[in-house]
Amino acid sequence: MGSSGFSWKLADHPKLPKGKTVAVVVLDGWGEAKPDQYNCIHIAETPVMDSLKKGATEKWRLVRAHGTAVGLPTEDDMGNSEVGHNALGAGRIFAQGAKLVDLALASGKIFDGEGFNYVKECFALGTLHLIGLLSDGGVHSRLDQLQLLLKGASERGAKRIRLHVLTDGRDVLDGSSVGFVETIEKDLAELRSKGIDAQIASGGGRMYVTMDRYENDWNVIKRGWDAQVLGEAPHKFKSAVEAVKTLRAAGANDQYLPPFVIVDDSGKAVGPIVDGDGVVTFNFRADRMVMIAKSLEYADFDKFDRVRVPKIRYAGLLQYDGELKLPTHYLVSPPEIDRTSGEYLVHNGVRTFACSETVKFGHVTFFWNGNRSGYFNPEMEEYVEIPSDVGITFNVQPKMKAVEIAEKARDAILSRKFDQVNYGAFMWLYRKFETNIF
C-alpha cells in the first residue's frame, strides 16, 4: 500500500493474455455523427475503421468527449484534445480549466487569490494588459470569462486596461471575429464612461500570432511580442473593428489575421507593455500559452530577440505547465490529476512507448500524464516526437505526419520491447485518407 492508502498493484486482465503488445491509438478529431453530406468522416473512404467496426460490432463502443463527461461545465461545451487526453490518461473525470475558472469567478475567489493580488500591485501606476483568444468557443477561452475579468479588475482598482485580442475562426465560425470585437468594444466603452481608460491595443489571428505550441514556430510568438510589447506591427488602425474588417476584406481569415496595433491620432501605439505594467493571459487551455509564458517570464530567454524586456507582473489564468511551474503566478489553481494510467503502468513493470508529431506530442505525453512533463520512469518509457512541418497548414496537408507516426508505432510493436504502444494522430476536418500500419 502507498502512503496515500491505495495500492499501485493492478490485477491481471481477465481476458488479455500476457506477452501481447497493446496498441492504444488516439484518432484525435474522429467521431460519429449524423451521416450526411456535411460529415467528412462519413463521406471519406475509411476501410480500416469500417472493417474494425463491422468485424467486432459487439466491442464497438462510443464514449462522449464533450461536456461533463470530460469535466467541462455543461453539455453545451465542446470537447477538445486537452480534456480528452486528460480523461483518457487518468481514467477519471476532473473539473477542467473552464469549469475551475467559472467556479472561481462565480464565488469571487479569483480576485482574492495570490495571483490576482500579485498583478493588482500594478493598478496604482501601471496598465493591466489582458492577452488571449477573443471567442466563445470554450476550447481555449470564453468571452464571458473575459468580461467578468474586466468587470472584476475595474471594480478592484484597475484604472488603465489594454486588451490584446487574438481572433479565432477555428473553434467558432470564420468571420465571427467582427461580432466578438464589436461586443467587447461596447464593454470597454462602458468602462470608459466610468472613467476607466480601457481600449483594445493590438490583435492578430490565433494561428499566426501568439498561440503556437510545443515550440513549433517561435515566429508566431515573436509577431505577438512585437505587437503587444513593442507596439510594432505591419498594420496600424484607429480601431480594432476597422482592423478586423479591413484585413478580412483583404483576404485574411480569422485564424491567420496578420498582426495589427491600434494607434492614436499621432500614429503612436495606444498600449505597448512597459515597465510597471501587469499582464494576464486569459486563455484557460495550456498548450498554446506555454510559449508566450516563457517569453514573458524567462530572464534567459533566447528563442528570438525581444529587443526590450519590460519589468512586469505577469500571471496566467491557470498555471500552464505544472512541471516547469510556468507561469510562477496564476489566478486559478489547475486540477490536480494524480494516479494516471502511465504512473500505474510503470509501477507494474509495464513498458510503454508514446509517439506523435510536434503539434500533438504533448497530448500523448503531457496531457495523458495529468499535465505532467517528463517521464515517470525513463527506464520503462520511451517518448518519440516527430517534427511537424513548419508553416504548412493542416488543410493544405491534412495527413500531417500520420504515416511517419504509424511507422514508428509499427517499429515499436515489432521490436517486442514494449507492452503498450500509445500514439496519436490528428484527424483533420479535411482528411480523405486512412493509414493502416500493418
UniProtKB/TrEMBL annotation:
Q: In the Enzyme Commission scheme, what number(s) does this protein have?
A: 5.4.2.12
Q: Which residues form a coiled coil?
A: none
Limits of the BPG-independent PGAM N-terminal domain: 102-321
- Matches recorded under Gene3D superfamilies: Alkaline Phosphatase, subunit A, BPG-independent phosphoglycerate mutase, domain B
- UniProt keyword terms in alphabetical order: Cytoplasm, Glycolysis, Isomerase, Manganese, Metal-binding
Q: Which domain of life is it from?
A: Eukaryota
Q: Which Pfam families does UniProt cross-reference here?
A: iPGM_N (PF06415), Metalloenzyme (PF01676)
| Reaction catalysed by this enzyme | (2R)-2-phosphoglycerate = (2R)-3-phosphoglycerate
**Where found in the cell?**
Cytoplasm
Is Metal-binding given among the entry's keywords?
yes
Q: What does this protein do?
A: Catalyzes the interconversion of 2-phosphoglycerate (2-PGA) and 3-phosphoglycerate (3-PGA). Required for guard cell function (e.g. blue light-, abscisic acid- (ABA), and low CO(2)-regulated stomatal movements) and fertility (e.g. pollen grains production).
Q: What is this protein called?
A: phosphoglycerate mutase (2,3-diphosphoglycerate-independent)
